[in-house]
Write a structure and sequence with these properties.
Layout (H helix, E strand, L loop, with lengths): L15 H30 L6 E6 L5 E10 L4 E6 L5 E12 L8 E4 L11 E5 L3 E6 L8 E10 L1
Antiparallel strand pairs: 1-2, 2-8, 3-7, 4-5, 4-8, 6-7
């Protein structure tokens, strides 16, 4: 989908030279609004391995940031990957996925994962002030690649 700016001209009562300046101002203003709109969409819908501010705010009015972390699950047990985020105030959401290989050849699943047939096959996903953790109950998911996106506010 192409973004098509909609320009409108409002007649400016004044000298002809002032009308030209008024039009330039309106054109520049519309360009800035369109550029901000496009950039907000990119920031909100795309995933980056560095911190990016989204155009959303949390209930306390603070801007929501996000960052995506990747790693390889070393199961069983806890896999730890440093997220490098300084000053997390509120964790809004953590989402993730894991898959056996790139390209995918057998399984892909969302994180955290609960296997209703065998609870030991579950995968936990959580963070602290320094790391992202994937907790595996057994070796089923050993060597799987994972990514986790953290949505947060900053202090």
């Amino acid at each position: 989908m192409k973004l098509q700016p909609n320009f409108s001209w409002q007649k400016y009562e004044g000298e002809p030279e002032d009308q030209k300046d008024q039009f330039q101002y309106q054109l520049q203003n519309q360009h800035i609004q369109v550029a901000n709109s496009v950039n907000a969409t990119i920031d909100d819908e795309s995933f980056f391995t560095r911190e990016r501010m989204t155009s959303f705010t949390w209930v306390d009015g603070k801007p929501i940031w996000k960052k995506t972390i990747s790693g390889t699950i070393a199961a069983p047990g806890l896999t730890t990957v440093a997220h490098g985020i300084v000053g997390i105030n509120t964790v809004v959401q953590i989402t993730g996925s894991a898959q056996n290989a790139k390209p995918l050849t057998t399984f892909s699943l969302t994180l955290p994962h609960v296997d209703p047939n065998a609870l030991a096959n579950g995968l936990g996903l959580f963070i602290d002030t320094v790391n992202v953790y994937v907790n595996a109950g057994n070796a089923t998911w050993n060597g799987y690649l994972f990514s986790a996106t953290i949505y947060f506010t900053k202090t």
